[in-house]
User: What shape does this take?
Amino acid sequence: MADRTLCISLMPQTNDEALAGFAEAARWGAMAELRLDAMREFDLHRLLAAPPCPVIVTYRPQREGGRYDGPEPPRLAALRQAARLGARYIDVEHDALGALGDVPPAKVIVSYHDFHGMPPDLEAVHARLAKSGASIVKLAVTARHILDTVPVLRLLQSAHTPTIALAMGARGLITRILAPKFGAPFTYAALTDLPAGQAGDDEAGPGQVSIRRMRDLYRADRIGPATRLYGVIADPVGHSLSPQLHNAAFAEAGLDLPTGQAGAVYLPLWVEGDPAAFVRAMREFDFDGYSVTIPHKQTVMAALDCVDPMARRIGAVNTIRRRADGSLAGTNTDWTAGLAAIEAVVGQGWLRGKRALILGAGGLGRAMAFALQERGSRITLSDMEAARAETLARQVGAETCPIGRIAPQAPDILLNCTPIGMHPKTEASPVPPTMLRKELVVYDAVYNPIETRLLRDARAAGCRTVEGIDHFVRQAAEQFEWWTGRPAPVDLMRRTAVAALA
Assistant: This one.
């Protein structure tokens, strides 16, 4: 029975639950890690008599983040018994490896955990454990920021001993998904989905991703050294649908390699603070492209080698591509996608001379202001930060209006380029219903939910409406084509987005 790329960490309380977990791991084509420290009692003879998948047996003490609080001799005796009964691997803590001794025919994983942060001597810890004689070295540390993944990925990439290196927590997600690309023999997954940011009794490690998402969304079982890397830079990032859209498109577009490896994978990148610092740090790992969204579309430009003229005028990019020489280029697909979405409703040429009220002067608001300037619209800008609106107004020849005085405005087209109305605050609207009238065209950039409060009110008033989901899919399709040079599977991307929001 060959080892697998994915391993499901099981935290059962009973033997029956453990056996059911083995069956699920086999169904997913994965290994199973059996955490004895989670069980009220266990029968190793029964559990290891004929497992349908390779099994790692772990009996984690509290000092290393587990639940076992008893004496060492019976704990180590159980691990030795598991080895004799057929466990593929025995996972033992770095400070107990000597006491455990050899456990043939099982292989030994020597593990080190830091649940508080990133040890400054990570490489030294790895070097020490690599000399222990264990078959695999496992280091699980905690990421407090996504940049904490850099030393982990670097270690994984350079290790000569079989190594599993993971950064626990939501900020370390990419280390779990990309472990196979950088040489790890396997990576871990949870059995079930958990709410974002929450832990559960069945979660063996903070930040674990469910086996369903690892397999179906990220295709982590098919990630290999040649898999190309993409992702969305955002803060926060958990709400983004971009991973669903782009991973579905990558799977559909025939990018996979003859070896069976996934041709590309697209990741959520939770970047707090300076996005340019993150992009610079990731250069050594050869990310091929990024989407960029709130709040990083402007500040990320500092990390780029070149920006196309329109994106430079806008002062914001939402798409980055690594070119053949390794340099990073930026563009903006928001303005072209936004225009296409609007003109699909109103027709070509309608925008010329029309009065447009744009709410929000951030990255998207800037893109749409320059887009409407290109079409010859008369623009009024409003933003909570009046100075930001005034700066943009000078650049596009627009007027400004204080956010508290927009109700008397009578535009031909209203554009909501703010996050107002986005999940979970779905009943919020940027304008009062009394401002909406039959002659008005209403564009809402918010796509989650598909029908926002603003769009619902606008339709009730008889307005023509432009859904954010249309803009979102169009800009994503343009990104895909810029990265890959292939036509985007637009219909699939739209179906994927709608299904994800259902």
About this structure: The CA atoms of residues 157 and 182 lie 5 Å apart. The domain at 346-466 is CATH 3.40.50.720 (Rossmann fold). The longest strand covers residues 107-113. The first helix runs from residue 15 to 27.
